[in-house]
Design a protein that fits this description.
By secondary structure, the chain is an alpha/beta fold. It has one domain. 56% of the residues lie in helices and 13% in strands.
Length: 228
């Protein structure tokens, strides 16, 4: 997390645009067959490990990835920076506003310079982009779900021009208080996925991508060993 925050601070100093992807196992599985998403992930200025599966796979391939760096924690850390300017976009009507209020209450030095729900039509995208650009945030959080949020950022990155643009999935629901995070002990033991599934059984489809991800990693490992 600390090294990721150092990189993000550099992005903010340099000015935009920079795309940040918080990579989890389900995104890896989707990117295997979605060429557009795969190109976005591979071309992002920063990719952080956002699931226990990613940490497991990294260890198998000898990569030094010591901890998860999730979207919700990144947003919290950035909001704690004095003078931070954040725009929250996506989720259901009212969620971004509630998240912004709670974020500013927790971090008085943070300015939420704009909010917008995720229920806009394609013909309204230009208006949304213009509103974000005019608000002048340092950080844009887009909560449209994988892979829609990543593709939306990639499609509009130059027009937006925001130094840090990050797809945050369900982060706004958590920040608004509408969704609770797993207890700390479940996060430490990499069981947050189980808590999410228990709280919202509709996430079963996402959880079921984990066996596919494991199979992909094992197959890639066998191929790598065979080539040595």
């Amino acid at each position: 997390m600390r090294s990721a925050l150092d990189v993000l601070a550099g992005f903010i100093r340099a000015g935009g645009p920079h795309h940040v992807v918080t990579l989890d196992s389900s995104m890896c599985v989707a990117a295997r067959t979605d060429a557009e998403l795969r190109a976005i992930v591979c071309g992002a200025e920063l990719v952080t490990p956002d699931s226990a599966g990613i940490l497991w796979a990294a260890r198998r391939f000898g990569l030094d990835v010591p901890e998860r760096v999730s979207g919700v924690e990144i947003v919290g850390e950035l909001a704690a920076r004095p003078g931070s300017r954040i725009y929250l976009g996506g989720a259901a009507p009212g969620v971004a506003e509630e998240a912004g209020e709670r974020l500013q209450a927790a971090h008085p030095g943070c300015s939420v310079v704009g909010t917008r729900d995720g229920y806009f039509r394609p013909d309204e995208e230009a208006e949304v982009v213009r509103a974000v650009r005019e608000a002048g945030p340092d950080v844009l959080c887009v909560a449209l779900g994988i892979p829609k949020q990543e593709k939306w950022i990639a499609r509009h990155r130059n027009a937006l021009g925001v130094p840090v643009m990050i797809g945050v999935g369900g982060t706004l629901d958590v920040l608004s208080g509408r969704t609770r995070r797993a207890p700390q002990w479940m996060r430490r033991t990499n069981l947050e996925w189980l808590y999410r599934l228990m709280a919202n059984p509709r996430k079963l489809g996402k959880v079921m991508t984990l066996p596919r991800f494991v199979a992909m990693a094992l197959a890639e490992g066998r191929k790598t060993n065979a080539q040595r």
